[in-house]
Amino acid sequence: MSLLRSIGCAVVVAVLLSLASAACGKAVAERVDDASITAHVKTALLNDAHVVATNINVATTNGVVTISGSVKSKAEEMRAVEIARQTPGVRDVKSELQVSSTPPS
C-alpha cells in the first residue's frame, strides 16, 4: 500500500509541476506577444505619414493595446486607433489620446 501511495503522490506532484510550468510558460509567452504587438504598433505608427508617432505611447496587456499621448486632430487619433487595430494579435484598442494644438515638449 505504501508503494502505491508513494507512486500516487509522485504522479500528483508531477501533474502539478507540469501545470505550473505550463502556466508560467504561458505568462512569459503572453508578455513576449504583448511586447511584439507593442513594437509592431509603434513601428506602424512611425511609418504612417498621417500620424506624429513621437507623441504617442503604446502599451499592450493581454493583446489589448492602449495608446496615449497627444495628437493634433481627431482625424490623427482615429488613424492611430485604426493602425493599432489592424496590427496582428491585437484584441482591442483603447485610446487615451488627447487632441491638442500644441504637442508636449
Q: Can you put this structure into words, describing what you see?
A:
The chain is α+β, with helices and mostly antiparallel strands and 105 residues long. The protein has one domain: Histidine-containing Protein, Chain: A (2-Layer Sandwich), CATH 3.30.1340.30. It is 54% helix and 21% strand. It contains two helices and three strands. Strands 1-2-3 form a three-stranded mixed β-sheet. A hairpin with a 2-residue loop joins strand 1 (56-61) and strand 2. The N and C termini lie far apart (74 Å). The mean pLDDT is 81.
Topology overview:
Layout: H1 2-46, E1 56-61, E2 64-71, H2 74-85, E3 92-99
Parallel strand pairs: 2-3
Antiparallel strand pairs: 1-2
Largest sheet, spatial ordering of strands: 1-2-3
Q: The CATH topology is what? A: Histidine-containing Protein, Chain: A
Q: Which class best fits the helix and strand makeup?
A: alpha+beta
Topology, number of strands: 3
Descriptors for this entry?
three-stranded mixed sheet; 2 helices; 105 residues; elongated; single chain; 54% helix; Histidine-containing Protein, Chain: A; alpha+beta
